[in-house]
Write a structure and sequence with these properties.
With 163 residues, the chain is an alpha+beta fold. Helices cover 45% and strands 20% of the residues. The protein has 6 helices and 7 strands. A 4-stranded antiparallel sheet has the order 1-6-3-4. Strands 5-2-7 form a 3-stranded antiparallel sheet. The longest helix is centred in the middle third of the chain and has 25 residues.
């Protein structure tokens, strides 16, 4: 898939989980004013989907877009069921991955509500160590819930502190 190509648009029902072999995806929503809010990035070896849409057959509120030219496997819910039939231990591994994902989302919500922009930025670097070189600053700022100008200030302050 090409950079900028959409795998999912708001209003559609998500039919797959996307496994990133190469490249980078992002999931985002847009508010009433058209401002984008990045929910998640998915670099190589990560999965991405709108789970509510996929498992409850609801229209999605999100877009999933290729940030870079990407190779992506489309995995249907049947894929995971069939995999578990062939390899019974798969369900336990999939459940562990799901629980880790839920934990990360809960921590992200809590961070957006209670952490400083600097703390969120440092967490971003831990979660996505190589993304600063791969995405524009405005995308990082969107993920952090701040303006690009605020992100510049945060980065400048960290340089002053030698962090």
């Amino acid at each position: 898939m090409q950079k900028g190509e959409l795998l999912l648009s708001a209003g559609e029902v998500c039919k797959s989980t996307y496994f990133v072999e190469e490249g980078l995806l992002r999931m985002f929503s847009t508010d009433r004013n058209g401002k984008e809010h990045i929910i998640q990035f998915a670099p190589e070896k990560w999965l991405m989907s709108d789970r509510s849409s996929l498992y409850f057959n609801e229209k999605s509120n999100y877009y999933i877009e290729a940030v870079e030219n990407s190779k992506v496997l489309l995995l249907t819910p049947d894929f995971f069921r069939n995999l578990n039939l062939q390899f019974p231990g798969t369900i336990a591994n999939n459940d562990l991955l799901l629980q880790k994902h839920i934990r990360n989302l809960q921590n992200r919500v809590n961070s957006l509500l209670s952490d400083t922009a600097q703390e969120r930025y440092l967490d971003f670097i831990k979660m996505y160590p190589d993304l600063m070189q791969r995405v524009p600053q405005w995308m990082v700022a969107s993920y952090l819930g701040i303006t690009p100008e605020s992100l510049s200030r945060v980065r400048k302050d960290l340089v002053k502190k030698n962090v």
